[in-house]
Specification:
binds nicotinamide-adenine-dinucleotide, 15 strands, 5-stranded parallel β-sheet, elongated, alpha/beta
């Protein structure tokens, strides 16, 4: 029996050591799940602060409560380190590092390349590498098979390689990690089988596909589907604005149809590390094959225009009362890209603040989850949401509908409100002061 086939038994008996490279929104919950399932887990990150926090049993990800970390740390089942030499002791290595865009909006797989290179240097037979970072179809096969095989070991014979996209949805309380089916595609049937075995310990359902390329494409389909449908919802919001209709009423009523319609909401623009980024990975790949990804390009154009639309509407609201944006006191409510989390990556709030500031607006913000942000080199600190501050603002612009905000008080105290999320939908008193997207 080869050492790779031997891994099957080590996974089944929970003797396999599980590595997780990149302990962020994706990697930390996965590491905790494997530890809870009884495996010894080693977490690797370049960020010593994260590693130190975990060593003390703390958590820096809202969805992972500190108690969950401390339990597995105290029991010795999860240990985080910045020492990549320990990769050689792992039998299964999950890679969960970022895949952002470069300044020119091309895929930036440099974090993956570095992580894979760290693995290649210590690669030994019998190891299984599972890539979880979202990327374009062909990354695993075209970039990382040659890189790993340059060690002299052969994929599917000496070591395993699979792609298993991550589907985590931060702050979503409806689904536990294990309840969301895991998709897996290996470089060879043995790779798929071993990765499936490993994930069966932590996911209720594992869905296998025939290749790493197919698994990569599954993830891009899922997020492109969202980006395009949000783009449609945003364009319908722009249409309703022209028609003098309430887009939220139209969406809610359409969503009562029990089949053939799926509700997506408009908003101030896309945010987060996934939806604004992932379709661009697919469009970039298709461009290299002379295939223009037209739906993606159109949705991207509409979605990236939304912060400008928000700023135009704010200017319109102020203008009605003969107030210029230049010098106006503008309070942005919420800067995280979605409710009840602290993640501001790609948040439309950053564009809205930048555009308002460029027009001379005196912008402050409040966000119960984000104590400070940096926009174009300027650091803003979250202001308290006092009655005076609300009353003092020329306009309050709601960008994130955090549950912790008392919307009735916001509407009662503020003079003018632009609500891009329909956050004030349940507030009756003072609704004449609220203008909605
Ligand atoms: N955040 C989400 O909701 C989500 C959902 C599904 C998929 N994804 C995908 O998962 C991947 C990771 O996203 P995330 O949100 O967890 O990112 P993150 O920034 O929260 O975490 C990534 C971690 O990797 C570390 N890191 C970077 N390079 C490293 C390296 N070479 N070696 C070791 N550690 C390294 C960083 O310090 C960081 O702690 C991305 O490809 C993303 O598109 C994210």
């Amino acid at each position: 029996m080869s050492r790779l086939e031997d891994l099957r038994q080590r996974i089944e008996s929970r003797e396999a050591v599980i590595g997780v490279v990149g302990l962020g929104y994706v990697g930390l919950p996965l590491a905790v799940e494997f530890a809870k399932a009884g495996y010894a887990v080693k977490g690797f990150d370049l960020d010593a602060k994260k590693v130190d926090a975990l060593a003390e049993g703390g958590s820096y990800i809202e969805d992972v409560v500190p108690g969950q970390v401390s339990e597995v740390v105290v029991e010795g089942r999860l240990r985080a380190t910045t020492d990549f030499a320990e990769l050689s002791r792992c039998d299964v290595i999950n890679v969960c590092v970022p895949t952002p865009l470069t300044k020119t909006k091309d895929p930036d797989v440099s974090h993956m390349a570095k992580a894979l290179d760290d693995i290649r240097k210590r690669l030994r037979s019998g190891q299984l590498i599972i890539l979880g970072s979202t990327t374009y179809p062909g990354t695993t096969h075209e970039l990382f098979v040659p890189m790993l095989e340059s060690s002299g070991l052969r994929v599917g014979v000496d070591f395993g390689l699979a792609f298993a996209p991550e589907r985590i949805d931060p702050a979503n309380k409806n689904f536990k990690v294990r309840e969301v089916p895991k998709v897996v595609g290996g470089e060879t049937p043995l790779c798929t089988e071993l990765a499936t075995k490993a994930f069966e310990a932590v996911f209720d359902r594992v869905v296998s596909v025939s290749s790493t390329q197919s698994a990569e494409m599954v993830k891009l389909l899922e997020n492109t589907f969202r980006a395009i449908n949000i783009g449609l919802a945003n364009e319908v919001a722009l249409m309703c604005d022209r028609l003098g209709l309430d887009v939220w009423e139209v969406m809610d009523a359409a969503a009562t149809k029990p089949y053939g319609f799926m509700k997506f909401l408009p908003g101030p623009g896309l945010g987060g590390h996934c939806i604004p980024v992932d379709p661009t990975y697919l469009a970039w790949k298709m461009k290299s094959l002379n295939f223009p990804a037209r739906f993606i390009e159109l949705a991207t154009e509409i979605n990236t225009h939304m912060p400008q639309h928000v700023v135009d509407k704010v200017a319109e609201i102020l203008n009605e009362d003969r107030i210029a944006v230049n010098g106006a006191r503008i309070l942005v409510l919420g800067v995280a890209y979605k409710p009840d989390i602290s993640d501001t990556r790609e948040s439309p709030a950053l564009d809205v603040i930048r555009l308002l500031t460029e027009r001379g607006g005196e912008v402050s913000y409040h966000d119960p989850h984000v104590p400070e942000i940096e926009v174009e080199g300027t650091t803003y600190k979250s202001a308290d949401l006092s009655d005076d501050r609300l009353a003092d603002a020329d306009v309050v612009v709601i960008i994130t509908d955090h549950a912790a905000v008392d919307w009735a008080r916001v509407v009662a105290r503020a003079g003018r409100i632009f609500d891009t999320r329909n956050a004030t939908r349940n507030v009756a008193a003072g609704r004449e002061k609220v203008r909605k997207l």
